[in-house]
Amino acid sequence: MKTKLSVLLVFLFLTIISIALPSGGPYGPVHKTYEIPKVTGKIYYVSPDGNAGSAGTDISKPTTLEAAVKKGVTGDAIILRGGVYRTGTLVFNQGLVFQPYKDEQPLLKGTFVAEKWEKTGEKLWKTKWERLFPAAPEDWWQRNREERFTPLHRFNDDMVFVDGRFLQSAANTEELNDNTFYVDYNNKEIYLSIDPAEKLVEITAFSMALHRVYYEVNGMKADNVGPKIRGIDFTQFADSTIFVECVDPVGVKKESEIGKEVQGTLIEDCDISWCSRIAMFLMGDKTTVRNCRVSNTSREGIYVVGSADVLLENTIIEKNNIENITGCYPAGVKIFNQCYRCTVRNNLVTNMPNSNGVWYDVGNVDGRFINNWVENVGKPEVPVSTNSVWPSQNGFFFEISKGAVVAGNVFVNCDHGVLALNASNVEMYNNTFVNSMVCIARDTRSAQGDHFGWHPATGPDVDERFGHVFVNNLLTGDAGFDRVLLLVWQPTVLCEKLSETPLKQFDNNVFVKQNEAYKTLAFWSPSKAQNCQSEIKTLTELQQLSGAAAKSQLLEGKHLPLFKSAIIKNYRLLDEFPGKAAATEIPANLKKLMGIPTDTKGFVGAYGVKDK
Questions:
Q1: Among 75, 170, 265, 598, which one has the highest count of C-beta atoms within 10 angstroms of its own C-beta?
Q2: d(CA 177, CA 1)
Q3: What is the pTM of this model?
């Protein structure tokens, strides 16, 4: 009994350590052996070579995935045998369960194999292709500004893969090389300069994999039960791989008016890759995405619209905007248009030089961004502009929205680690920023004459963009980092109207500058300096301009005792770190959100429980 108690105490102690900070994993899908679920309805077995005429209720006589989806109702489960399913546009309106059979791995592919090729010239081959996906930019895309960076053909949704390698689109056959393809939409032909002989050439044939709608389909009226999708991989779809659809909230809405048509969707342990637009387009309250991997997407990895109480956790989101489309404001995760209490917790967001990381975009309320690891988002090597904060790529971006908690996160090598733009009441506690600026900004954008119409009306107006908290954060740049650590910004034209700081609490932070040649610590506005902006080089200047920061510290020098091992990205602080005493104890509700014990004392940065 004593031994069991000791083991339990050790387990509980280690659990406290693991949940009090970015966990380090497991991120992404966890391979499992699935039991046949206990459901109230039928179990349908499907396989890549199933018989559509089979009932599918006997494992030895599987039906097709298409047939099972058409007849399944809420309470039914569809069990997928392992293998490749080349299928898509599976439309349904019921709360179906999708999962693998035992430890087998089903893979849904949105491509067909192109086998019939004709040589039409020197290093030129073509094939006929009926399933094409021409597209155009949104009507708000500014063609006069962006087309020189992004040719129009880049907006088409067709994709071509040669031996699994993604090819980029070309404008014509003259532009072809080993890394591109060309589509002649008039004649429905696809061209390559790669000899397709003895190669696997796959071309998109389906826009989506699974489409859960809120209206009548398959002879059934819809209920409001979301699907449960577990352990299935998806790749090579031309639009939104998984689309859970509700009524699109157009205009300013009440929370009770949106996200109610489909509720309780669960997507777990799925790997979704190579989507020409979006991996998951999710609408509906109480949606959960857990332990998934989303990679190599073109516009958004995960797109949440008009929903409440959404949870995204333990998921890898990487390599968004693989086509480098400009002027379209991409994000690995975009939470858009009047979402409430959406939580992004303990995820790995990484490798997005041409994309934002996680973006709460217009009209969101009470966002929670907790214990995430965000790395290599944007281009931190680009010089800082003090005239504007946009365009930029941001690890966490909270725009035209009300209320967020940003706590316990690590940001490494990001353009902006955090950008709070035209927002109110963003509380930033105990984050670690390594080579990643923090930017708190507001400008004149409002619902009057805006390029995006009514969108700004969903968030705080120009004179309501304040109330931010910035406490217990650690901001540092290494010896090669020649940017400011903090930018509090507004344009000169606002300074007469908004002469007070947007921060209601600003203290107990530690700034560590290791680049001895770069002296600027921050830029701050509003101020009485020219252009309403002051350059800050010392802690005293920061305290005078902010009217706060009395307990904050500025440490300089590249030989300070700081992290346990920055070279292996262990950003726990050394016991000898001289800035530890700057911290203050955080509120109890923050401790609960971060998953740390209620008796935890104040600490600096993301790592508050001592590593043993």
A1: 265
A2: 70
A3: 0.95
